[in-house]
Amino acid sequence: MLLVETVRKSALDTAISAALAPWRKPRAVHDPGKILLDVALAVALGGDCLADVGMLRAEPAVFGPVASDPTVSRLVDALAASGPKALAAIRGARSEVRTRVWELAGASDPSADGQVIVDIDGVLVLAHSEKQDATATWKKTFGHHPLVAFVDHGPAGSGEPVAALLRPGNAGSNTASDHIETARLALAQLPKRLRRGRQTLIRTDSAGGTHAFLDWLTRPGRWLSYSVGMTTTDAIHQAVLKIPKKAWTPAYDADGTERPGAWVAEITDMPDLSTWPTGMRLIVRKERPHPGAQLRFTDIDGNRLTCFATNTKGGQLADLELRHRRRARCEDRIRGARATGLRNLPLHDTAQNQIWLEIVSIALDLLAWMPMLALTGEARRWEPKKLRLRLFSAPAKLVNTGRRRWLRLPARWPWTAVISHATVRLHALPNPG
User: Fold this and answer.
1) Rounded Cα gap, residues 54 and 60, in angstroms
2) CB atoms near residue 290 (< 10 Å)
3) Residues 6+ apart with CB under 8 A from 204
């Protein structure tokens, strides 16, 4: 009920239906937008294939009429055959709805503090059969290597997907053209005011530390901020050796306090950065590794070295380094995506699996929007598995009496108060249109 109400208040149902209207046949019974949204709801509830839409079919009082499995398969095939046209329609609807949801979120808007952060990372999706573009990966596995992007909701929330680029398993980790395409898709999902300018920060690991990608981010007219990891080259290694001891400042822990055994320093003026974008700063961090960790050739005096680049002017080095290190929250988003349909690509053709990625993205959107609009406190940070266990699995009843429909929750369910509070918050939001 929480997800269905989120769909209604966000107007996602009408936006998806309007976007997929060209794929509705004249005498069709089921709306293509409703079909795609039903599959996304099934994935949000834990499904991992098209046939899992059957769990919605079993509850028509909640989800309405649900298409049969053959109808669902035919729609996915039709959308896959349309290629970029269908993808553009789905993504355009998601972008339109995202703007409305962020407006409804108020203070919980990811850009409420004046800046929005987009994290880009790769994820390996294993394949257990001969699917199109499934190849050997750099980790000696077999499958695909998509690039994904998430908007970071900060320490008080989770995050939402804004791009998913399907790639073969042997795709490179630091392919600049793929990072550019993923960033372009991500920016198109943001409200128009955030698609260019320094208030939008692109954050990646060292895979994004390439000339072409940074040149694209800082191109005149785009002027995006960035914080990207950099490979510790020999030039950086030699520069670190020249840093005087007094130039190192303590690094911060996750809570903003000084972290024992970790320091940061800036080496912008030491290596030759003439071929890199103007205004790029290089910041290095050294830290004593935890017991049992293996050192690398680039480590110095028993300290683990990492480096990142940013074009943010001013600010404490420790604050900039902590901001970059919080990119690790993207790993939490990927873990949630794996638990929400990304553990496996269930279809054979690449075009079909790209549609599946869009379905997964819609499901993850709902699992991010519902907490952002309806939940508070610790519940705001719950990941998909916890949401399913505590909220979506509550043994409630729909009761029709007195010409009204009531949702009755068990008093003994530990999270009944959370569900009731979330329902009230959703009902209080203005209706679309």
Assistant:
1) 11
2) 8
3) 119, 120, 121, 179, 213, 226, 228, 229, 327
Kindly report the pTM of this predicted structure.
Answer: 0.93
Distance CA 115, CA 1 (A): 32
Under 8 Å CB-to-CB from 348, ≥6 apart: which residues?
131, 132
Radius of gyration of the chain (CA): 23
Q: What is the pLDDT of residue 242?
A: 86
CA 284 to centroid of chain Cα atoms: 27
Q: How far is CA 143 from CA 41, 50, 134, in A?
A: 25, 20, 4
- Report the distance separating Cα 238 and Cα 284, nearest Å: 12
Which residues does 271 contact at the CB level (< 8 Å), separation at least 6? 233, 235, 236, 238, 239, 282
The pLDDT value recorded for residue 294 is: 66
Task: Kindly report which listed range (214-218, 315-319, 351-355) carries the lowest average pLDDT score.
Answer: 315-319
d(C-alpha 363, C-alpha 357), whole Å = 10
Ramachandran sector of residue 124 (left: φ over 0; alpha: ψ -120 to 50; beta: rest): beta
| Phi (first) and psi of residue 120, to 5 degrees | -115, 135
Token pair for 294: 């293996």
**What are the tokens at 99?**
């703007």
**How many residues are there in the chain?**
433
